[in-house]
Design a protein that fits this description.
- This protein is an alpha+beta fold and 231 residues long.
- The protein is 45% helix and 25% strand.
- It has a 7-stranded mixed sheet.
- α2 crosses α3 and α2 (15-47) packs across α4 (96-115).
- It is globular.
Amino acid sequence: MNTRNSFLESLRFDVSAAYEEYSRYLFDYKAQFHYQALSAHIAIMEAFPEIDFHTICRIKSLTSFLAKAEHKGIEKVFDIHGIKHIIHFADGSSDEKILTDYCYRLRDFLQSYYSKLPAETTICRLKDYIVEPKENGYQALHFSGITAGRRFETQIKTAHMEDVAKFGGANHAEKYKPRELGPHPLASVPRYLVIRNQEGMPVVHELSLQDCFQYFYNVPYEQYVQMEREK
């Protein structure tokens, strides 16, 4: 690498700029992003009344964001804000092929939905991990975009795909987000909001830190506390 390229590489990651960028997203998480996730959830309910699904909205943890920003560059981190739509049933069916077909229908619908929002929205990247799963078995449809000046990522998957991601090989593979309890595990826990359908209405529930911890690590928070006491 020549001197000029070395200098440009040294400017790639600015920690103070990364903190500032994350702070902007943290402020928007409740002020704007919760509303975005809820609006998308309601739009799906109205367009696909025959399916049962839930939505998970999360903001990436600061430690995870800093690590990814350093590796890829701040402007290439689209999943600071993340929305996940998980399909359970369609007209009472649990057939994975039927649910997978709905994943594609939801993706096409949501791209059209975002393009019609009053806030200027651009869909930047599409990834199909259903046709081409990751080596560890991970499957989902991803698309990334920018709305109201903020980057976000949407994932669409079936409940089975979510189980593989959380409990199967996709969760434990060393190459894909290993979730091991390090020296400061609390700093790596994202914050989650869950939207479920109840009697035809969306119900919003913001997870506690304890619930976020268990969802992310698959370890009860109380068990972690006990482990810390026994050290």
